[in-house]
Known about the structure:
- The chain is an alpha+beta fold.
- It has helices spanning 15-29, 40-48, 70-76, 80-83, 97-110; strands spanning 53-58, 65-68, 112-121, 127-139, 145-152, 154-157.
- Strands 1, 2, 3, 4, 5 and 6 form a six-stranded antiparallel β-sheet that branches.
- Helix 1 crosses helix 2.
- The N and C termini lie far apart (31 Å).
Amino acid sequence: MNTYPIPDATNDFLADYVCLIIKSLKKFKGIELTDATLSMKEQAKQVFEAPYVLVAHNATAEPVFQYSNKKGLELFEMSWDEFTRLYSKYSAEPQNRKERERLLHEVLSKGYADNYSGIRISKTGKRFQIKAATVWNIVDDENKKQGQAALFKDYRYV
């Protein structure tokens, strides 16, 4: 499902894709996620190795994850290949999917959402609550939607 290999030095840490995510966050929220004076490869490396969670899914009718940094892969307890084959709705348990859908529709209409909190589940069944997440649309230079991304630092196991 995913055309992207795991980010590493041989593929510039997926700098082109991460650039879309970073530019979109700046566009919708005015937030500089990385040091803009660095090369895109260095910025993408920073994002992949960051202490926060950054995940993104594509813009298909049934979105599939396209990206996770190391922290996200650890939290969801998945390999890159497992995570990038996961339909994003399955990151939430069935009883929490309506709330997730409501959030994604809000983001779709206004470009972003702040202070999102919700329950997610790892591959091994560990439940965790995301706190104060920012979720935003990923758009290209023509403003065409490419997906959505989520960023959060705060979570706790429940």
